[in-house]
Structure to design on (198 residues):
């Protein structure tokens, strides 16, 4: 398992070894030992497994959870391909307001560990893209928040040639500045405390 730290503190990309033969392939995109070794010693406690399917052009996110309670995610593309985005929303973080992007696909089975307080989203590059989410907390609708993926100050590089398809919630989501003014951004120290206890 190869691990690479992204430009948002605490976000780690994992590239698993894929074993292929005439029968097909076998891969382990999540290995707790690798996560613990490369994500600051965190022990990731999974309470929910979710999937989403998306058609080409779908943009989901940027989503995050109110902190507390906060949730970490481990995201993997099982089929299709996405341009994936993470945004550091933790006030006081050394990488606050910084974003990074990477390509996840069913052919590489790369995965991302996304710590508490970091926003996540993606743009689907192929039809029938399937994303798997291991999540450290229960779904509570009132705690689920969104940042506009179209925030002009963030200027996320959505892929050229896509006509973005967004949910009403994501289209109406506030900018980073508006979230800050509303007091909805996670505090770095609190997010790190929660992340370390998962």
């Amino acid at each position: 398992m190869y691990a690479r730290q992204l430009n948002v503190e605490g976000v780690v990309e994992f590239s698993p070894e894929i074993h292929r033969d005439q029968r097909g392939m076998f891969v382990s995109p999540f290995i707790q030992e690798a996560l613990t070794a490369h994500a600051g010693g965190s022990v990731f406690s999974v309470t929910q497994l979710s999937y989403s399917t998306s058609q080409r052009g779908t943009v989901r996110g940027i989503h995050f959870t109110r902190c507390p309670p906060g949730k970490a995610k481990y995201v993997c593309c099982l089929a299709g391909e996405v341009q994936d985005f993470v945004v550091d929303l933790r006030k006081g973080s050394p990488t606050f307001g910084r974003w990074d992007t990477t390509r996840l696909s069913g052919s590489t089975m790369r995965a991302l560990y996304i710590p508490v307080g970091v926003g996540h989203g993606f743009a689907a590059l192929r039809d029938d893209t399937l994303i798997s989410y291991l999540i450290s907390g229960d779904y509570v609708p009132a705690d689920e928040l969104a940042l506009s993926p179209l925030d002009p100050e963030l200027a996320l590089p959505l892929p050229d040639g896509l006509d973005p398809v967004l949910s009403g919630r994501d289209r109406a989501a506030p900018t980073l500045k508006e979230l800050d003014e509303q007091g909805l951004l996670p505090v770095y120290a609190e997010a790190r405390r929660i992340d370390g206890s998962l």
Remarks:
- The longest helix spans residues 188-197.
- The chain has one domain: 2-197.
- The first strand starts at residue 2 and ends at 5.
- The chain has a mean pLDDT of 93.
